[in-house]
Amino acid sequence: MCKTLWSSLLKNIPCHECKEKTLQVSQKNSFGFTSKIFLSCASCKKEFGSVFTSEREVEEKTFHVNNKVVEAFLAIGRGHSALETFSMVLGTPSMDSKTFNKCMKNVCQKNKDIKFEMLELSRNAVRDAHIRENPNLQKSAVLDISVSYDGTWQKRGYTSNLGVGCVIDILTGIVIDFEILSKYCHECVISERDLEKNSVEFKIWFAGHKNECEKNFHGSSGSMEMHAAAVMWKRSIKEFGFRYTKMLCDGDSKAFQHLNEEKVYGPDMIQKEECINHISKRLGTALRNKVKEWES
Length: 296
Hints:
The chain is α+β, with helices and mostly antiparallel strands. It folds into two domains: about 5-100, no CATH class; about 140-185 and about 220-290, Nucleotidyltransferase, domain 5. The chain has helices spanning about 5-10, 65-75, 80-90, 95-135, 185-195, 200-210, 225-240, 255-260, 275-295; strands at about 25-30, 35-40, 45-50, 55, 60-65, 145-155, 160-170, 175-180, 240-250, 270-275. The protein has a five-stranded mixed beta sheet with strand order 8-7-6-9-10. It has a three-stranded antiparallel beta sheet with strand order 1-2-3, with helices on one face. Strand 7 and strand 8 form a beta hairpin. The radius of gyration is 29 Å and the shape is elongated. The termini are far apart.
């Protein structure tokens, strides 16, 4: 808070109690990037009220500016340490790690709520589009649709701790489902270090943490793609009213074979459609290799 600025604004305004032009603004509390400021008179000591510099979000009992700052740093892939450096350069107080983590949980929960809302809108749009294409589907509880599926990782080399699979409706090009898999939980790593993994204290801690643990996959990074596919295919009918009967995917995708081995739709087998881009890439590679073979 710039006290010089406030002093300049108030220097010609008299106190309605003592009529002296000695109104002042002071800061007595700080909550992250939010402050509580008080208006008072230096002469008669009369206090006229106080206000926070940011709106309070009632449900989360946090301040809007703190949530937005945390959201901004998460959006650029940075955490509390980067925020402390940022605050140091600006010469302003930062927020402690406890406040940062609380705001981070609030932001994550809001994003989850928005995710569910957006996916619900997307699925309704997909259903409407298929019914427009074939009005006979109007009364069908479950629609058979063709989808594109692919997986991606945080980094290459099949050593990534994070992977995601995504299902896209071919008719509309709208994302209708995705699944994020993680082999890493930062809170677990910290607690294992501080409490020791095999200790009674860690087991007690983990019992309370289990439902919030970010680690939801224990296999190899390379198998994330097919595991995510199985999760989404298995819930498609019961939760969304879709049956993904045709699957457009990479030519070397193991997900297609895995889904049919799992018999996610019982006796109904999933059909595979080749992506023309992957076919052209494989054909191009084969032709170039053949040219090299002839040249040698």
